[in-house]
Amino acid sequence: MRLRNFAAAPNQGVLLPVIATTLFPRLTRQSRTAFHVGLAVMMVTLLALAALRVTPALIAVGALGIPLLFVLYLRECGAFRDIPRRQLVISAAVGATLGVGAILVAGARFAHINDISMTAGVAWSKFFRHGLAIPLGAALLKVVPAAVARVLSKPPRKALDGFAIGAAGALAFSAAATLTRLAPQFAVGWIAESRSGEGLIVEAAISGVTVPLTAAAAGGTFGVALWFMPDPDSTRAHQRRAGAILAGLTLAVLIIFVGVVATDAAGLSQMKVLLLHLALAIAAGLALRMALQIALLGEAHDSASVQARQCGFCGNAVPDTAFCPVCGVAGAAIPACPRLVTHGARLLGTWALGNAFVAAALIALSVVVTATPRRFTCPPNCGRPPIATPVRDLPRYTANDGGFTVSYPGAETAYAVTTDADGVTARLTVGDGGVLRLFAVPAGGRPPRDIANALLRQRFPDAVIDYEIPNAMVGYQPGYGEVADDWPQSSTARYSRVRILVMAAVKN
Questions:
Q1: In the predicted model, is pLDDT for residue 152 greater than 60?
Q2: Torsion sign over Cα 243, 247, 248, 249
Q3: Which pLDDT belongs to residue 341?
Q4: Which of 268, 277, 458, 505 is the most buried (most CB within 10 A)?
């Protein structure tokens, strides 16, 4: 495999995770520098928007930053000329449609699967029983655009063309899914005053960096495998080995994506979630680099021309062969007629203009759809006294050791109740749902405030306390209560704000 020299950039190793040479393998050396700068500017823009809490613009850059750079890459390397545009358009259209549909159908369901009670820990059994189909389905949907385009393709086929078509479809899926998944944020105002800067930075990194990179790796690797045509002069064993490795790398990237979704359901702090997302994105990128390396080394090459050409990597005049005899770059990784965008100003200007247009449109949409909060003045707008029966004969739960007794919602209510050795779990079955958990833990000499805070940090480590409940009581026992908000980080579930109420009291 020649791991020391990447065929698209011989001065780099195959196992070196460089985004620019992985996502944009078919560029001249001068043009690649401009795309390095473009990626850096995109990441700085994401950090700045997260610090300013301008969520519509943050969503726009996060969803479209890398996909728009990829479109500029296709234009720069001449893909719109070398690849039938119909295949690129169909791949992108199928990907965008599937991305919107996947979030509308499965996003809310996966959010409810992640809704775990305060002491239950990570519900892995529930995840594997009900939620595993969602990440598996999403992983497979990312490669459907490449499969559809492959049916329409005609030989001869080139691996880098398959990469471009597969990655374009997967990035369209990612962009559409991100916009759909984060769309509820538009209704809470264009400035996220209640959210922490750290949480927005993590959201920007996941939505704008790790998710599109993993998607491009999945679609690109699958496209390389579908479009790969082995060199007819190589042995049958070598051809079978190359095909098997490409198939294995495609499967590995799909498994990595399932791992990404499992990370979302692990109940970790958002910084740990981000680190795991970054690690998995790097692993997916390395799998893509290995697939590109195998394809560039083992695919059928065009017949060499007697006419010399200038190598786009080292700049020397060399024969038109499969690999440059001076630097070793693959001839397929050098565009035949590059546009030579050697200055970053034009690239950055086009990229910034596209993102600014979408960001301005989303900010305007947020201003229009955000409802003005109603203000109540008491009197005269005071709440009415309860008109229902204040006391009901509710079922009663008693712990096995007799440590505590508690009443819980009975039959013919909007709750689905289960009891176990630890306590009672009641799940609200109407509206947006929710979980009521009644249980007891050893106090260990701690006051109610410390117990409540410890339970909150155990299950929701990044929750932000909104307010304390005055004169809180658990039954007839004085205690402590607080209300907090949490915004779970996820690459699959729809955006949601989780409202948490914790009340604790010490008895005996």
A1: yes
A2: positive
A3: 47
A4: 277
Length of the chain: 508
Helix H or strand E encompassing 368: helix 344-369
Question: Would you say residue 379 lies in a domain?
Answer: no
pLDDT of residue 154 exceeding 50: yes
Q: Are 413 and 395 in contact (CB under 8 A)?
A: no
| 95 vs 223: CA distance, rounded Å | 13
Domain termination site, one of 326, 351, 368: 368
Could you count the other beta carbons within 10 Å of the beta carbon of residue 47?
17
Query: DSSP per residue over 30-53, as a string?
Result: HHHHHHHHHHHHHHHHHHHHHHHT
DSSP string, 197-250: HHHHHHHHHIIIIIHHHHHHHHHHHHHHHHH--B-TTS-HHHHHHHHHHHHHHH
Rank 76-85, 340-349, 373-382 by mean pLDDT and report only the highest. 76-85
Task: Indicate the angle between helix axes 270-298 and 159-181, nearest 10 degrees.
Answer: 160
CA neighbor of 61 nearest in space, from 494, 278, 359: 359
**120 C-beta neighbours (distance < 10 Å), count:** 16
- Tell whether 492 and 414 lie within a shared domain: yes
pLDDT given for residue 108 in this prediction? 60
CB contact burial 151-180 (16+ within 10 A = b; e otherwise): eebeeeebbbbbbbbbbbbbbbbbbbbbbb
Do 23 and 65 reside in the same domain of the chain? yes
Strand spans (E) along 10-155 = none
Contact 187, 369 (CB under 8 A): yes
Antiparallel, parallel or unpaired: β 317-320 and 434-439: unpaired
Note down the domain range covering 138. 19-368
246-278 pLDDT tens trace: 999 999 998 888 888 777 766 778 888 899 999
Spatial CB neighbours of 269, under 8 Å, sequence gap ≥ 6 = 461, 462
What's at 467, amino acid-wise? Y
What's the structural domain count of the chain? 2
Contact of 305 with 270, CB cutoff 8 Å: no
- Are both 456 and 350 inside the same structural domain? no
User: What is the pTM assigned to this prediction?
Assistant: 0.84
* Last-in-domain residue among 351, 368, 385: 368
- Quote the CA–CA distance of 256 and 279 in Å, as a whole number: 10
Residue 4 lies in a domain: no
β-strand 405-407 against 415-419: which pairing, if any? unpaired
DSSP 107: I
Quote the CA–CA distance of 486 and 464 in Å, as a whole number: 6
CB 115 within 8 A of CB 188: no
* Residue 376 confidence (pLDDT): 67
Taking the C-alpha atoms of residue 186 and residue 362, their distance in angstroms, rounded to an integer, is 8
pLDDT band for position 119 (50/70/90)? very low
